[in-house]
Design brief:
Elements: E1 2-7, E2 12-19, E3 23-31, H1 33-36, H2 44-66, E4 75-81, H3 85-102, E5 106-110, H4 111-117, E6 131-136, E7 141-146, E8 152-157, H5 163-173, H6 180-188, H7 213-224, H8 226-230, H9 233-258, E9 263-267, H10 274-287, E10 291-292, H11 296-299, H12 304-313, H13 320-323
Parallel strand pairs: 1-4, 4-5, 6-9, 9-10
Antiparallel strand pairs: 1-2, 2-3, 6-7, 7-8
Helix pairs in contact: 2-3, 4-12, 5-6, 5-7, 5-9, 6-9, 9-10
Bound molecules: 5'-O-[(R)-(carboxyoxy)(hydroxy)phosphoryl]adenosine and zinc ion.
């Protein structure tokens, strides 16, 4: 089954053609960072306008690169939410128009379910159910128990900032340009992760929830102090990153101590983080649990994961194309 994926939930205009939920024949993502960088964050209005300008060409590009055409695809998978409403409607309206014109099924996909299926892409083996996903992106941070393609439970989520947001805000405090996560990761490689003991959030008993705002505030107060003004930014970056990764790994560990999972997967933009990847691999070899981390191009927002989710979750009808609307707050 050949599916065209369309993802426009935030600031990446992404399209892809995926066979049977795993073989990525093409995946195109045009990042809009240059348009948002000077504002220090994503401007929703600009994001929607860029999607309008880029999406049609991105669809043709994905089909061309895959050697596919509108005639050979079996359906269209589109992100219906959650995300920026102005961005979502561009993808949803385009996908509806295509499905209507082509008389092909339309799959409405939850963006976060897409991240759950990113670890399935371009892999000979897929994660065996039940598995645990640490979903850490710029907009979301949560732990998900995946019992099957359609049965997933959120075990814990952030009370405030998402992990990627914490990276981006802390990077900004360190004077790094937006989006700061990858830059902070690079800076931290030259720093000492034990130079400063920034706070690690502890959830209430029994909770697997996360919180990063206290950590970010603590870095800010430190940087404004006398010691902070003289500190090596690489040490601050490394120490901040150590705190984030400690918290994430503590939740993974706690989740595994409560239930049996056959694998651990990490997804979302922060899954590209070098320290987090090293920690997960280390944890998985110590605990003898297989680990699935997608390559960076599938960690960040992409349309291949949306097409994959559609394949595994199934059940689209042509009639869906007529009634689908975008939902900025689509629940998990
Ligand atoms: O999944 P994603 O593309 O967007 C959302 O759906 O939110 O994630 C983007 C986030 C940004 O906050 C970015 O700074 C962060 O992922 N990120 C990283 C790294 N690469 C991307 N954070 C830490 N280390 C990285 N290497
Ligand atoms: Zn995302």
């Amino acid at each position: 089954m050949l599916l065209l994926g369309i993802e426009t939930s935030c600031d990446d205009t992404a399209t892809a053609v995926v066979r049977d939920g795993r073989d990525v024949l093409s995946s195109v993502a045009t990042n809009q960072d240059e348009f948002h960088a000077k504002y220090g964050g994503i401007v929703p209005e600009i994001a929607s306008r860029r999607h309008v300008a880029l999406l049609s060409a991105a669809v043709e590009d994905a089909l061309d690169r895959a050697g596919a055409s509108f005639a050979t695809i079996d359906g269209i998978a589109v992100t219906a939410g959650p995300g920026l409403i102005g961005s979502l409607v561009v993808g949803v309206a385009s996908a509806k128009a295509l499905a209507f014109a082509l008389r092909k099924p339309l799959y409405a996909i939850n963006h976060l379910h897409g991240h759950v299926f990113a670890p399935f892409l371009d892999r000979a083996e897929t994660p065996p159910y039940p598995f645990l996903v640490l979903l850490v992106s710029g907009g979301h941070s949560q732990l998900v128990a995946v019992e099957s393609a359609t049965e997933m439970t959120v075990l814990g989520r952030t009370h405030d900032d998402a992990a990627g947001e914490a990276y981006d805000k802390t990077a900004r405090l360190l004077g790094l340009p937006y989006p700061g996560g990858p830059q902070l990761d690079r800076l931290a490689r030259d720093g000492n992760p034990t130079a400063y003991a920034f706070p690690r959030h502890r959830p209430a008993d029994g909770s697997l929830d996360l919180s990063f705002s206290g950590l970010k505030t603590s870095v800010r107060y430190f940087l404004e102090s006398d010691a902070g003004r003289d500190a090596d930014p690489a040490d601050v970056a490394a120490s901040f990153q150590a705190a984030v990764v400690d918290v994430l790994m503590a939740r993974v560990d706690a989740a595994f101590s409560r239930a049996r999972y056959n694998a651990v997967a990490v997804s979302g933009g922060v899954a590209a983080n070098s320290r987090l990847q090293a920690a997960v691999h280390d944890w998985s070899s110590r605990n003898n649990v297989p680990v699935f981390i997608p390559p960076p191009k599938y960690c960040t927002d992409n349309a291949a994961m949306i097409a994959a989710a559609a394949f595994y979750q199934g059940s689209a009808t042509f009639a869906d194309a007529m009634t689908l609307s975008a939902d900025a707050n689509l629940p998990f």
